[in-house]
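Per reviewer request, we include the raw input and output of the structure prediction for the construct analysed in the revised manuscript.
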Amino acid sequence: MILAADVAGYSRLMEWDEEGTHARLQLVLRDVVRPAVGMHKGRIVKTAGDGFLAEFASAIEAVRCAVDFQQAIAERNEGVADDLRLAFRVGINLGDILTDHEDVFGDCVNIAARLEAMAEPGGVLISHTVHEHVDRKLPIRFDDQGECALKNIARPIRAYRVCWKDTLVAPDKRDNPSRDTPPALPQIASIAVLPFATPNSDGEQEVFAEGLAEDLITDLSKVRGLLVIAAHSSLAYRDRSVDLRVIATQLGVRYLIEGSVRRAQTRIRINVELIDASHGSCLWAERFDRDLADIFALQDEVVGKIIIALADALPCARPPPSRRTTNLQAYDAGRSPRNHSGKHGRPAPFWRGQSRSTRSLPGHMPGSR
């Protein structure tokens, strides 16, 4: 996760007052930017003139950091003449990076820098990959800017403008919540699995993602002491753009699982995050790249890691044992819209109508995985 930032109109400011501009920039970096980056568990990789690059492990923390220091800088600019204000532009992108002697390179860094150049002074632009990880998890709005052609980037990149001025709760309201404030979330070990996002509304992948979410719900429901929301309730949020805290309140749970699924021929990529909705923090996140032949072993691995991440609430929890088929064609055939139709036009699980003891995939052999 790369955050790129620089000062808008820095050359003009230096031409007007070189020493004063340089001194004010160093103060902002020392007193505002560096503390914000550290507080949000990031690190400044390098500084160059009027800009810097920072690296974060979490998309949520990167966006929070950008919003925090942009707000702090805006407050420092109050009462300063417009032509003397220091205003940062920020771009954030998620992707693989190359490192060399404490420097970072690669397409991810280039896209972050191009987004930064397109941002408004005092503003933040994020790529669609970042948006997938932060949407509905922060009390801020993201305005879709559409597909943007970036300099020296062959493909267009969808960008989102981060809008926080009208959506963040004022400090006095945090201390004195009104009756409209959502009630406190339950502190028991309660969890809901939200629909996994799929690219470009691909119908086949949506069926696959829904099957994965339903199977996760089934496995988690076997964990003693864990309250799991039924699929018909949690999967109803597929097409809703609702803040995660509101979803958690409506479902009456403390924890939420969400993620995305991308499937290409014989490969699958799954991003999964476990969110503590009581304070909006990400307890655990991981990306899995596997062959489709390993899909059920992958599912067991995901469930096991989620339970480990919930260890504080479930000190005695252990992942449930699994006896599954590895026949992917049978799995797809069972979930195909041609075979069954469920509520709201979605394919019903292939085991619907069977007893719990006989739920198995076509071609399942006793003791197989």
